[in-house]
Amino acid sequence: MKKFFSFAVVALAAVSMFSFASCKPAEKQIGLQLYSVNQDMKDVDASLAKVAAAGYNVVETLRSPQCFGLPAEEFKALCDKHGLKIVSTHHSIGMDPEKEAEIMEQWKEVFKGLNVMGAKYCVIPSFKLGETIEDLKAVCDYFNKVGALAKEYGLKLGYHNHAFEYEVVDGQVKWEYMIENTDPESVFFQMDVYWTTKGGKNPVEYLKKYPERIKMLHIKDDLVIGDSGKIDFEAIFKQFYANGYSDFVVEQEMPRGPKDEDKAARLATMWEGVAKSAAYLKNAEFVK
Prior knowledge:
The protein is an alpha/beta fold. It is 45% helix and 16% strand. It contains ten helices and twelve strands. The protein has helices at 2-23, 44-53, 72-81, 100-117, 133-152, 174-180, 193-198, 203-209, 233-242, 263-283; strands at 31-33, 58-62, 66-67, 70-71, 85-90, 121-124, 156-160, 168-169, 172-173, 187-192, 214-219, 247-250. The strands form three sheets. Strands 1-2-5-6-7-10-11-12 form an eight-stranded parallel beta barrel, surrounded by four helices. Helix 9 links the parallel strand 11 and strand 12.
């Protein structure tokens, strides 16, 4: 009887521990676009350690298949070492109809590198859109071709906006034209909420208007997320989640200062900023 009682106690304790672990909330996935710390990436290993220590567990890198001078395999190994999941990269190759075959081969190498890194997105960070609707249509056609190729590698091709995409050409907002004239199966959009606001637009309204096309967000502020009070991050996140998406990364511009200011001081401000942004998002109840 005593032996049975002891076994029962141990079993009950194990069940309790399992139940507690099951109820423990999952760790938030807080991402960082590594452009944010680009000025201090000479020692990639040490800098990725700082990114993790600052509170991030997801990264969006720059370029592929070389990242900060490292082959895709080596870069991924360092990210794995520091518990950083690579979700995406920013990479762009200009279009040239006369060299289309060559350009597509270049994209293939980009996508192969992203496969090695385990990423699921490839985002074009900016592009020369031209001055006419005909120019813009040519860009959309190019994106459709590249996006179709990305699909062959199990990837999604995205486009990241700044403010100039909200300019009007022939009576149409460029960004809206791009969304409406690219293939939903091949191209998505990564909305930068800061630049959208700077462009005079409301990020939430666009999330409502194009719920299936905006699959990723750049979360950005003047410097530290939430400090300026100019952007309603809570409303943005709630609508983004309601649309069925959750991938986002923080992007911070390099802190600017007087030319004679110590660079080390600016780098310290940079690292402090990305850490404060991570803390803000981790503590925000509206971020899942």
